[in-house]
Design goal:
It contains 13 helices and no strands. By secondary structure, it is an all-alpha fold.
Amino acid sequence: MSTPVQVPENAPATAKPNSVDRLRTAAAEASQVRALSTHPDVVALRVESVRTQVDRCMWVGIVLGLAFTMVNVQAFAAQGAALWSLPWFAAWLLDPMVSLVLIAVLRAEQITARYQVSDHTKWIGRTKRFAFAATYAMNTWSSFLHGDVAGIVLHSVPPLLVFCAAETAPVLRDRLTEAVLRAEQAAALADPEGASHRLDTAPAVTELPTTAETPQTASEAIETVPAAPSRPKPSHTRRKSAKPGRKLLADYVTEALAAVEPGTAADAITPAWARYTTGCSTGLSAKVAAAVRDALNTIPETTSQTSTYDTDAPGETARVAA
């Protein structure tokens, strides 16, 4: 008899808790996204994807430029040779010989620049400059002899572009690595205790089911099924099942106090500890840590008061006996 009365009273207010729940869920997700957007692991993942794109574009441009110069170098080396003769075939080997050495140097620089290892012998730069000078001279030799300005410009663009790409690629890789290191340093300064190196996404996901309360909701739903009519029964059970999904500040504080070990100092309670223990969001962890510290500070006061009461008790009993 009581359930039909409760359903009409709660029916008009069903929209407000649902909207509040959605807003609270969106705020929690936004807090997690904001916390993870500056996480070193997330920054490293994004930088690696950008690094892969940069490497692919650089290598495609370098290979296309070397393929263009190969034809001009072959024509330069095969001057006066008969078509399909042995010198004509050997002329095709000149440009790949230079290109393979240049590609090997660039491939090694791709790894050394990633770990910020510098070359103290200067032979890497010398090899790249010699390969560029040789390729440029063989590409533009005939154009300079005939005074062909258009040919000089046309045959100068690919070697210059390959040289610029070879010089710029290591710098870009070094800057990308520096971005990852700076993100890690910023996270270490923001969280010196090392909690920034953990991704606390798993506790946030496990907050929603609240397995400790689901058996109660199931039993309440079973009890309300025979008493409630057939139509309002689904909406009533939905409201009951949606409420345990919320977790208030007091719940987080209670869970954190239960996890505090005996003898723990109040200064040891930090927002990082609150996130690790309860799985709360970054914005809520400071409030949880402050509440736990206040609770730990009040415990010694109460114990000292009870101890004074205990010491005064024998005197009072002595007076009563007198």
